[in-house]
Structures are given as structure tokens and as C-alpha cells.
Design brief:
The chain is α/β, with parallel strands linked by helices and about 375 residues long. About 25% of the residues lie in helices and about 30% in strands.
């Protein structure tokens, strides 16, 4: 098969971002494995479908460059499917093709996919197709229900490959060991982990109220000489957090604490933090009083993650926070809040979004 310069585009990044770029392209079904990855000077060039240009903003954080192939660049490739839909077109009934997911999560060497009810009976076929498409993937699991409970665990069903749930995931230069059946982790938050970590300054004290296996805390301590108190109520999360601290070379310090974050702050960490991270979108707003109590003299930055609905989920979320403060539900006098940054991260249901707000508090 011949591939001409009109069929793809190069994405050029430095070597430290190469791993993240390839994972992002694979998760979006935009990587072209038929064309060999190239190296030019200090850059690695990945071949991508031209549809990647529709989501250029997702590559900004990696300082990616989009380079047009030269007209004389024509590649002879093997006939190989490049997406799950293409691979399954002759394996599933035609009327079901429109329901085949275009993306799924890859955590380490494990893929996790969500299927509509119409495709559940075909899960083993779809799982084996993912194994064929991604040679680095060894196990495939089906999301068998929503994330629930204060430990944020999702039920999973094994559908293909090795039946194991422990893996090692690499993200933003860090290494994370985890058991996908016992802890919460989302590779789709890689951008947020990096964005927040890069804001932290040397010497800061940070409290991560719902730390999980440490994707915020460990990256912060790898990049900055900061102290991060990493709290989680899930003992399995703390177990893997402790293992991940030893796996990574850190400039700063991560202090794991098991327990309810409100109780931990009340007993140990009131009036100490420069920055607080609250990634528990279904319940974070109910912990806002504890987060403010954790700030030194009620001044500092809070990164809060929430679920909110359209038409303007960021504005709506901020208005709710201001109303809570004005209603004196926060029992601290003369607290002021301003919105430094806000954005929609991903749609979690029709017209309902996972959003982040960076809030500056002062008194």
C-alpha cells in the first residue's frame, strides 16, 4: 500500500515528551503504525492521521510541532488496520459499526474500554481486536459499572488477554505501579497533573486531599522542592502511593496519610498549606470548608474538580462556590475568592462536564 504526503502529518516532539505523545495518539486512534517513526536532529516524528489537526490544543502542553510531509515523501506500507473500527468492520454486524468506541484508556499494558449495551455480547471479540491493534497491551477489561464509593472503585470485567489487574504506568516522566481493580486512576488527566505541578513553587506546602496513587503528588515532588501531604481514605491507594514514592527520583517530599481528608486536616494540617488539590469531582464541593481551613491564614490556591452541566459549566461551578461562601456555610470570616482559571476537561454524560477551577483565596 502506498501512503502519500497528503494522507498524514508529522507530529514532532523532543524525546522527553515522545512517550506521552504516542500514548495520546494511540488512545485517539490517530497513530499510523504503517509508517516508521523518524528522528530528525533532537526531535522524534510520529506519523498521524490528519484528523489530529482538529484536536491540536491537546498537544500544546507537549510543545508539539505539526510538520507537513514533503511532496516527495511516499511510503510503502503494510496493509494493517489503524483503528478499532477498521479492524472490526468484518467481525461485527454492519448495523453495530456506528457504536464501536473510538477511544479507550490504556493504563500501563492494560486497556480499559466502555461499551454500549448493544456491544457487550461482542466484548471478547472487541478485546482481542485491541490486543491486535496495540502490541504493547497485554490485558483488556470492560467497564462493568460506574466509579462508586469514597474509594472511587469501578467494577471491571476481564474480556481478553492476561487476566491480571496490576500494571506499571508511565506518565509525565513518572512511574506508577497500581492495581486497576483496587484504586482509582485516569490516564486522561495527564494534562491536568502536569499543568498543576508546573504551577507549584519550590518551598510550597501542598495538600492533595484525594491523592490516590500519587499522580499529582509525585509529579509535584519530582519537579519541585516542595512538601506534599498526600491523603487518601483507600488503604490500597496509600499502599501503591508508598511504592511509587520509592520508584521515582524526587526533589521534594511526599508524605502519605491514610484517612478521611476532613478529619486529617482538622487534626493535623489546619493553617499549613499554600496550595490544596481537590480531585473528587462528585463530592469535592462538600469538602471546601476543610480545604480553606488547610490554607495558611486562609490564603492560597485551591484546585477543585467538579461535575457541572451546560450551558456554561465553569461559570455555574464558580457561582455555586461563591454562593456557599456568601451563605456563611464556610465558617471563616471575610473570605474572598477569585477565579484564576477554569476549563472543561471532558464530557462525562450528555451536556455534563468534568471541570477544573483554580481558585485564589484571601482574607
Amino acid at each position: 500500500m502506498m501512503v502519500s504526503f497528503l494522507d498524514f502529518i508529522w507530529i514532532a516532539v523532543n524525546s522527553k515528551n515522545a512517550e506521552n505523545i504516542k500514548k495520546l495518539l494511540l488512545s485517539k486512534g490517530l497513530f499510523l503504525p504503517q509508517i516508521k517513526v523518524q528522528r530528525r536532529n533532537d526531535y522524534i516524528l510520529f506519523p498521524a492521521k490528519r484528523d489530529v489537526l482538529k484536536i491540536k490544543s491537546e498537544f500544546v502542553q507537549y510543545n508539539a510541532q505539526f510538520i507537513e510531509p514533503r511532496p516527495e515523501e511516499v511510503f510503502v506500507t503494510k496493509e494493517r488496520p489503524t483503528s478499532l473500527k477498521e479492524l472490526l468492520k468484518n467481525k461485527l454486524p454492519k448495523h453495530l459499526h456506528e457504536y464501536i468506541p473510538s477511544s479507550y484508556d490504556i493504563v500501563g499494558d492494560i486497556a480499559i474500554i466502555e461499551l454500549p449495551e448493544s456491544l457487550v455480547d461482542y466484548a471478547p471479540i472487541i478485546g482481542n481486536a485491541i490486543l491486535t491493534l496495540h502490541k504493547n497491551v497485554k490485558s483488556v477489561f470492560l467497564k462493568a459499572g460506574p466509579v462508586t464509593g469514597n474509594v472511587r472503585i469501578r467494577p471491571l470485567k476481564h474480556i481478553a488477554g492476561q487476566n491480571r489487574t496490576v500494571t506499571v504506568h508511565r506518565e509525565n516522566g513518572c512511574i506508577y505501579e497500581l492495581d486497576i481493580s483496587k484504586v482509582y486512576f485516569s490516564p486522561r488527566l495527564s494534562t491536568e497533573h502536569k499543568r498543576v505541578a508546573e504551577q507549584v513553587q519550590d518551598g510550597e506546602i501542598v495538600i492533595d486531599m484525594f491523592a490516590g496513587i500519587g499522580p499529582f503528588a509525585i509529579l509535584i515532588a519530582r519537579l519541585k522542592r516542595a512538601t506534599v501531604y498526600a491523603i487518601d481514605v483507600n488503604p490500597n491507594a496509600i499502599f501503591y502511593l508508598q511504592r511509587n514514592i520509592t520508584r521515582n527520583k524526587l526533589k521534594g517530599k511526599v508524605i502519605p496519610i491514610i484517612g478521611d481528608s476532613r478529619e486529617v486536616i482538622t487534626k493535623q494540617l489546619s493553617n499549613v498549606a499554600d496550595r490544596v488539590i481537590m480531585n473528587l469531582p462528585g463530592e469535592s464541593i462538600s469538602f471546601l470548608d476543610a480545604a480553606i481551613k488547610a490554607l495558611r491564614s486562609s490564603k492560597g490556591i485551591i484546585h477543585i474538580y467538579l461535575f457541572e452541566s451546560e450551558p456554561d459549566p465553569v461559570h455555574t461551578a464558580f457561582q455555586k462556590i461563591k454562593e456557599i461562601i456568601l451563605s456563611k456555610a464556610i465558617k471563616i470570616q471575610n473570605i474572598h475568592v477569585s477565579l484564576l482559571y477554569g476549563r472543561k476537561i471532558k464530557e462525562v454524560a450528555p451536556r455534563r462536564w468534568y471541570v477544573v477551577l483554580d481558585l485564589a483565596f484571601s482574607s
